[in-house]
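fyi for ur records
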Amino acid sequence: MHGRRTICSLLAGWILLASLSSSAFSADNETVTVKVVTPKEFKMELVKHKGKVILIDYWATWCIPCLKGFPKTVEWHEKYKAHDLVVFSVSMDEPDQETQEQALKFLKSRKATFTNLMSSLGSDEDGMKQFGVPDGALPHYKILNRKLQVVAQFSDEDGNGISHEAVESAIRKELQKR
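which gave:
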């Protein structure tokens, strides 16, 4: 009897783990996923959206200001996606399985139906540098114009927070350009 219970528990755990990693959540027929990428793969993802304005939200599950500000990213996506804004979230967490599951759970809870990526290098100095977070401070927002050039960056390097009004203003300004 005890052996069967152990096997059933293991099987239930395996099924739960498989369902978590398959990203079955859907909001308005859009699936929430997270994909681990190298810096080169990240750049290739951006190139796919040349001709659109891009907002990148760099964050981590351990960064409280990132988690508190993330609803603004979702709001901007919803508000401006019809106006050529493409949103990326880039988790700078360590890319181990447990942390990927934590990140995915958070993204699902926020209905983050845009492109969600995770740094293959984590949040060490080299990872931050290669993914384009110059000061290594999170949260960090970056806005790219239609030619994939960085036109604005916002970070919390001084610990005073980020003005979400300033980020949205920069998004609107760039979307108005053709």
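DSSP finds six helices and eight strands in the chain. thats all i got for now
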